[in-house]
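Changelog note: in this version the structure field was regenerated for every chain. One regenerated record is shown below for reference.
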Amino acid sequence: GEGEKILFFATEMEKEEIQTMILAHISGINEDKILNNYYENPEEKQRVYDAIKIMNHYKNNFMFVRVGDPSIGQIKTLIRKQVLKYNIKYVFYDYIFSSPGLLAEYKDLNLREDVILMMASIALKDLANELNVFVMSGTQLNEKWKEYKGIRDYNLIRGSKAIADKIDVGGISLPLTQEEHDSMDI
């Protein structure tokens, strides 16, 4: 409720896509309904209009940067610039992945992909400490998650388990298995 400024550092999505997701979240209306301008009743449409007013009221608190093929140097420069320029306290980095720019940055050193991904994770952690900001990010899971039995841990991270070495809090979000669902007391 304080109206804090945030930076969303996107690697794939455009600002318009992010804004529609935010609008759906604030209004509680399914994003497809908003995109297709199809509402079941006037109350749903009004909730979307009210959410638009809220977004407009706080529009100066949402900073957006998009780099489709980021390198660690670009990530650090752009986040520093935005944080210092706009007094940002919260940074949301779309997700850590093996972009060609990231891999090319270290090609002459012959580093493995997992080491480079770990370096990207370290860069985000270092920025959080240096700039005294909250940084949240994500990464992808490997294909093993589909058949994995037991505790879902860092072994499911795609590209580099070392990404998890620098996080303060982490979680893996997956659909419940039938066994997990059956074990719940609902």
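Spot check on this record: The longest strand covers residues 6-10. The chain has a mean pLDDT of 85.
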